Amino acid sequence: MLLFLAMIDDPDEKKQFEDIYLSNREFMYRYAFRILQDEASTEDAVHDAFLSFAKNFEKYKSMDCNQTRSFLIITVRNAAFKIYNKRKRETATDDFFLGDEEVPDIAVNTEQKDVKRILFDMVKSLDSKYADVIMLFYYCNLSVNQIAEQLDLTPENVKVRLHRARSLLKSKLEGVGISEG
């Protein structure tokens, strides 16, 4: 946190940033961990999100608490997806260079993990207004009311977005041959 505070000159703004940091870091960590499933990468994503926030703190310091939290959620989500995509590209490259060598199967339920990965990739491909509510509802286990508060929406609007997102995901899953079981 000292790195972030060093980027801010005014003592009152430092206190404000520290309060924001302390009240949001755990939630941001849990959100990013749901995406990355790796502690080191998750910490990197949270760090990148706060670094971006600190660099532009002058612009964001006047936001209310819900707007700030929404901004931080979106920022950490984007940072996590960036790390996730980079890791995915590196894994694909590694698989290419392994060639025909035998790769040990360490996954217990490979098919189930593949479906989860496909579904996660599809959630990422949704418009952010749908991806955000799906991530917060299913991956962060927030209630509709909590999501509404975080994203500055009405609960009814969150329900509509969840319904539309589920419909989009169902169509995409059927498009790749995965149907309800």
Please sum up the structure shown.
With 181 residues, the chain is mainly α. The chain has nine helices and no strands.
Describe the structure.
- With 181 residues, this protein is mainly alpha-helical.
- It starts with a helix and ends in a 6-residue tail after the last helix.
- Helix 2 packs antiparallel against helix 3.
Q: Over the alpha carbons, how many angstroms does the gyration radius reach?
A: 19 Å
* Coarse morphology: globular
- What amount of the residues lies in strands? under 5%
Biggest sheet statistics: none
Number of discrete helical segments? 9
Instruction: Sketch the topology as an H/E string, one letter per element.
Output: HHHHHHHHH
Give the number of DSSP strands.
0
Fraction in helix:
over 70%
| Secondary-structure-derived class | mainly alpha
Low-pLDDT regions: 93-108
Task: List its traits.
181 residues, 79% helix
List the helices and strands and how they pair.
Blueprint: H1 2-6, H2 11-36, H3 39-55, H4 57-60, H5 65-98, H6 110-125, H7 128-139, H8 144-151, H9 155-175
Helix pairs in contact: 2-3, 2-5, 3-5, 6-9, 7-9, 8-9
